[in-house]
Write a structure and sequence with these properties.
Helix content is 49%, strand content 0%. It has 1 helix and no strands.
Length: 101
């Protein structure tokens, strides 16, 4: 029931045909297409325009990210501090119990 079943590769049967012979072909080159000479003028304005609303949204989003990351880091620090305190209390309790014997 729990024995592994190893698959077996079936052997080819019958006659096999030899691989086809590939003939080399000649490469013909074509003349390249002429490049267009008409270039569009570059715009004088910057690619990103910051409006007062966009700046306000960026500042608000950055503030929210900083607050969330700060809250996560503070909660992790608090968890470590609580764990260390409870381990210290347990160590003192065990030491006190051993000292009484």
């Amino acid at each position: 029931m729990f024995r592994p079943k190893v698959p077996t590769m079936p052997q080819p049967t019958g006659l096999t045909t030899p691989p086809a012979v590939v003939e080399p072909t000649t490469i013909t080159s074509h003349a390249p297409a002429p490049a267009s000479t008409a270039a569009t003028p570059a715009p004088n304005r910057p690619a990103v325009q910051l409006t007062p609303g966009t700046v306000l949204a960026l500042v608000g989003g950055g503030t929210a990210v900083v607050l969330v990351v700060g809250a996560v880091l503070v909660s992790m620090l608090l968890a470590v501090a609580l764990t260390a305190t409870s381990v210290a209390v347990c160590a003192l309790t065990v030491r006190s119990c051993i000292a009484r014997r």
